[in-house]
## 1
Amino acid sequence: MSAHILKCAECGKYTLKEVCSCGGKAVSARPPKYSPEDKYGEYRRAVKKEELEKKRLL
Ligand SMILES: [Zn+2]
């Protein structure tokens, strides 16, 4: 069984989940590669963060 290690782009923690406990987006623990998709990732991260804040309110 080979776990795919991801690293949070927000706090730098290593995790196995795509979304870190801090709400940040976890990416492959390889050197970051800049691409146009990063902009969408940032947008999605903002949406996810909003989602988490809503869950806390419930
Ligand atoms: Zn994090």
## 2
Amino acid sequence: MATYQLKVNGKSQTVEASEDTPLLWILRDHLDLVGTKFGCGIAQCGACTVHLDGNAVRSCSLPIASVQNQEITTIEGLSEDGSHPVQKAWKAVDVPQCGYCQAGQIMTASAFLEKNPAPTEEEIKNAMHGNICRCASYNRIYKAVEMAAENKS
Ligand code: FES
Ligand code: FES
């Protein structure tokens, strides 16, 4: 066990854990931020996506020891009230089905649009490609990302 200093959703947090504990478990079990989901556990599905210094990363495969002193943002920290353009577009398009993959989808989409605010359809599909949705809500996901880009730019 060791002590780690993390910055999560703008708040400093001190956590005790083994160095190889995945960030996902720190978020869910230590900090009670359960919006980030566990899917595959092997960086293949995207359900656990959060932002690390603004980049979309898979928290199931990131040991806590590797994320200290970086800005971690989870779905709970994306906006206080669901007012982020991606969240608004998600609601307008009514994207979710079962909802399980959606936090990861939104975190991938929001990091992507920060870097590419006016993407082509092709770029949106490429960016979202690694986030699996077992309900196959892909068309609505693409539409919502497009709408968020329009509302942002
Ligand atoms: S749970 Fe992390 S990528 Fe699937
Ligand atoms: S909405 Fe069910 S897994 Fe994506």
